């Protein structure tokens, strides 16, 4: 039985562990965090990714935990509603697609694997050395171990990618924007509703999902000046506060809540582009290999599908990792490219450059429900996303 070490216990890691276990491998998941991560933001599961979830037997549970969002309202500095969108259209979703909180999906995946997969929390890989017997792995806390294969499922700033492939600067494509998300009190008593304040170069949002006692604040903005150090949390908060200081509406209260937010998140909107996702006995999956950025709306789906295909190709190749890694890339790369290509187009509607563009979008949103063929026009908005989300055919391994 081949042993596989997976770094990262978010979405791609547990999904890969599930399928490797199904196919007769012995997966171990190591995660730097002390426990499964909770919270997070809204994520979408679309197209063939729904098939992966269904094959895992989790689709009913995923649908039961849907955010059940109803509407998105665009407001001005005084809180006046300028335009309203149906939540499904706002998220670019079609009928079968599901929106769920990232923490809820992560919990379901952990529960589905906890009794069949070895999890090591509170530790991280420090070195990888290929030997005749496999990969010798050293850890920050635990003893060294040898695994047949190692997989990095550890996100945009992948530790495994850095150890096996070198500096991430070689692979990161910065989209010129930043994002910040954190939990805030639901002082507006929002119920499955999203409120958006858009200004040139930036968008502030607040939303509350089904079953949530609190709300989330999200800030998207075009990058200006040098990037903040990823470890400089206070500097990141200062950047967000300075960029959105004069937006009016509820933004000052959201920025005040940011100071004590337990789950403050800040990063660039970036993608990962690599000529190959594998090196020897080490490979990558999900954001570590082909991050599409939150702007694509497809990061979770890429992780789910990528994990399934990687595990399936390892099974099909009877554990021959060289052949499996080649087949994994051949099967998945067109799907990855199609979904990464969504990001820049989506960003144009998420963060608008001028007041004129914002006013025109508000006008069109108010007009849309009254136009003949409005349903067909709405479908055209989601068509490109749906096409990318279904641009691979899943094998039955």
How would you summarize this macromolecular structure in one to three sentences?
By secondary structure, this protein is an alpha/beta fold. Helix content is 37%, strand content 26%.
Give the helices and strands, then pairings.
Blueprint: E1 3-7, H1 12-22, E2 26-31, E3 42-45, H2 48-55, H3 59-64, E4 71-75, E5 81-86, H4 87-90, E6 98-101, H5 102-113, E7 118-121, E8 125-131, E9 134-139, E10 145-147, E11 149-152, H6 159-165, E12 172-184, E13 193-199, E14 202-208, E15 215-222, H7 233-243, H8 251-258, E16 265-272, E17 278-279, E18 282-284, H9 287-290, H10 299-316, H11 321-340, H12 342-350, H13 355-367, H14 374-389
Protein name: FAD-dependent monooxygenase
InterPro entries: FAD-bd (IPR002938), FAD/NAD-bd_sf (IPR036188), FAD_aromatic-hydroxylase (IPR051704)
GO molecular function, one term: monooxygenase activity
Task: Characterise this structure.
It is built from 14 helices and 18 strands. The protein has 397 residues and is α/β, with parallel strands linked by helices. The strands form four sheets. A seven-stranded mixed β-sheet has the order 5-4-13-14-15-12-16, sandwiched between helices. The protein has a six-stranded mixed β-sheet with strand order 7-2-1-11-18-17, with helices on both faces. Helix 10 (299-316) runs antiparallel to helix 11. The chain is globular.
């Amino acid at each position: 039985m081949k042993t596989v070490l997976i770094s990262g216990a978010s979405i791609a890691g547990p999904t890969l562990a599930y399928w490797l276990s199904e196919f007769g491998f012995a997966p171990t998941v190591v995660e730097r965090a002390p426990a499964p991560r909770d919270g997070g933001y809204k994520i979408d599961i679309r197209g063939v990714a729904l098939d992966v979830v269904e094959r895992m037997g989790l689709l009913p549970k995923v649908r039961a935990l849907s955010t059940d969002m109803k509407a998105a309202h665009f407001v001005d500095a005084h809180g006046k509603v300028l335009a309203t969108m149906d939540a499904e259209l706002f998220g670019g979703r079609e009928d079968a697609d599901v929106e769920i909180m990232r923490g809820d999906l992560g919990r379901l995946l952990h529960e589905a694997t906890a009794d069949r997969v070895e999890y090591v929390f509170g530790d991280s890989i420090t070195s990888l050395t290929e030997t005749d017997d496999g990969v010798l792995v050293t850890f920050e806390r635990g003893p060294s171990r040898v695994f047949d294969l190692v997989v990095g499922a550890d996100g945009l700033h992948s530790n495994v990618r850095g150890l096996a492939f070198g500096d991430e600067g070689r692979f990161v494509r910065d989209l010129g924007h930043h994002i910040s998300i954190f939990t805030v009190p639901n002082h507006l008593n929002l119920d499955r509703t999203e409120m958006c304040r858009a200004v040139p170069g930036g968008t502030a949002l607040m939303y509350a999902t089904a079953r949530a006692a609190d709300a989330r604040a999200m800030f998207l903005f075009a990058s200006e000046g040098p990037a903040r150090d990823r470890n400089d949390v206070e500097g990141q908060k200062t950047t967000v506060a300075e960029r959105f200081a004069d937006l009016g509406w509820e933004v000052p209260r959201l920025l005040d809540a940011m100071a004590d937010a337990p789950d403050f998140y800040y990063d660039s909107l970036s993608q990962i582009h690599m000529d190959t996702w594998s090196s020897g006995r080490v490979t990558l999956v999900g954001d570590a290999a082909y991050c599409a950025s939150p702007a694509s709306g497809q990061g979770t789906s890429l992780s789910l599908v990528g994990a399934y295909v990687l595990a399936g190709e390892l099974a099909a190749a009877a554990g021959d990792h060289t052949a499996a890694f080649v087949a994994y890339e051949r099967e998945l790369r067109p799907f990855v490219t199609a979904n990464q290509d969504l990001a820049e187009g989506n960003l144009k509607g998420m963060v608008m450059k001028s007041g004129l563009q914002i006013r025109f979008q508000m006008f069109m949103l108010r007009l849309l429900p009254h136009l003949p063929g409005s349903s067909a026009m709405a479908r055209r908005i989601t068509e490109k996303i749906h096409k990318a989300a279904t641009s691979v055919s899943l094998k039955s391994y």
